[in-house]
Amino acid sequence: ISVPMMHLTKNLRVLQHPQFTLLELPYSKSPVSPTQFQMLLLLPTSIEGIAKLEDLVVVGDLEEWIDNMQT
Hints:
alpha+beta, 3-stranded antiparallel sheet, 71 residues, 28% strand, globular
């Protein structure tokens, strides 16, 4: 069975932190909106890292991390 799959060949913005990796995935522009959207993934570095991550993330820090992301 042939199934259409999403794929992307592009340099993505990322931030490496000792407790997580922050990755930005772009979305195409919507036909109804000229705005480019993106999804941010916050991936813990350890299996038990989700609980630590929940305590670590605050809005001010998240904004700073996004500003410091690099390709």
